[in-house]
Amino acid sequence: MTETAEYDVLIIGGGPAGLSAALNLGRARSRVLVIDADRPRNAATLLSHGFLTRDGIPPHELRRLAREELTAYPNVEVRSRVRVLSLRQTDAGFTADIGRRDPSGTATASAVVLATGLRETLPDVPNLRGYYGISLFSCAACDAWELQDRRLALIGESADLADRARLIARWTESLTVFTNGADVVTAGEQVELAAIGVAVQRHPITELVGERGRIEAIRLADGTSVAIDGGFVRPEWETELSFLDGIHPAVDDAGNLLTDRSGRTDIPGLYAAGDAATPGPQQLIVAAGAGARVAAVIVHDSVGVATAH
Ligand SMILES: Cc1cc2nc3c(=O)[nH]c(=O)nc-3n(C[C@H](O)[C@H](O)[C@H](O)COP(=O)(O)OP(=O)(O)OC[C@H]3O[C@@H](n4cnc5c(N)ncnc54)[C@H](O)[C@@H]3O)c2cc1C
């Protein structure tokens, strides 16, 4: 990239959503720039599941393969380990400042895809990060198969915890919900969970016990210790949009970007795909599909042809 470079489409984020959009836009002869800070949410995990033909692949390998495929398209440029520091709207489209901490270059584009994923905050439990992605996960569809029929935990502090427990209970008959002291499972929900064999522990968690990320027990403030082989946490997720400078796309009550079903935000020329665009499910193949769809929509919009999708 030169000091200021011009593109048809700037894609912010090089996960499956952004890279899939780049592949399909590249094939449509768009000049594409992908800027990727290379800090994907799934970096915590060793293996990714559920991506057709790539079940069980390490997440970094999936990204490497995708970037390698893009090298066949000279009209697609991928820059890693730099971020879009700010994005402004101009008469011609958008201008982005790009760099690590300070801007080292500028790019302009008539369309922008926000494929920045989500930022997640884990429940406030000591040393949870040390187990996350090894024996504690956040996505049942992604990782419950490997944990099935074992003694599982669900740790969370959000109001949807009982619903999540009902889902996870399909993979095991030994599930304990840990609310970590938060008042988030109602008495009625606790009765319903008990009816399907799910226990609820309401005391704050004082310690996760295990070795090298393999959890063995959860200790509670009342002195109880519950033996556990693995499980799930319920993080809080947020879309990180602070780099938008004077651009205010519609968001829902939780601050998540709102788009139409094709990935258009309410700002002309500004699109979103993958985890950054609600709704989920938050999965690699869904993000990749959303990237392909938004690419098709951008191509159609660029020539004023209506989309049927
Ligand atoms: C622990 C864990 C395990 C998971 N396991 C699975 C699994 O087994 N199977 C599965 O299908 N899904 C799994 N997921 C979910 C999956 O990782 C996501 O759904 C998927 O990565 C979303 O893709 P994305 O392209 O939208 O975002 P991401 O993959 O998160 O990529 C977004 C990229 O944008 C970059 N970025 C953000 N802001 C900027 C900026 N300002 N400038 C430049 N770049 C920026 C980030 O650094 C990142 O590289 C898992 C998630 C986690 C947390």
Automatic annotation (TrEMBL):
Catalysed reaction, written as an equation: [thioredoxin]-dithiol + NADP(+) = [thioredoxin]-disulfide + NADPH + H(+)
Coiled coil: none
UniProt entry keywords in alphabetical sequence: Flavoprotein, Oxidoreductase
InterPro entries cross-referenced by the UniProt entry: FAD/NAD-bd_sf, FAD/NAD-binding_dom, Ferredoxin-NADP_redctase_2
Domain FAD/NAD(P)-binding: 7-291
UniProt xrefs under Pfam families: Pyr_redox_2 (PF07992)
Molecular function per GO: thioredoxin-disulfide reductase (NADPH) activity
Highest taxon above the source species: Bacteria
EC main group: oxidoreductase
Record keyword Oxidoreductase present: yes
Keyword Flavoprotein: yes
EC number(s) from the headed UniProt entry: 1.8.1.9
The protein's name in its UniProt record: Thioredoxin reductase
Source organism of the structure: Microbacterium oxydans
Chain's gene name: trxB_1
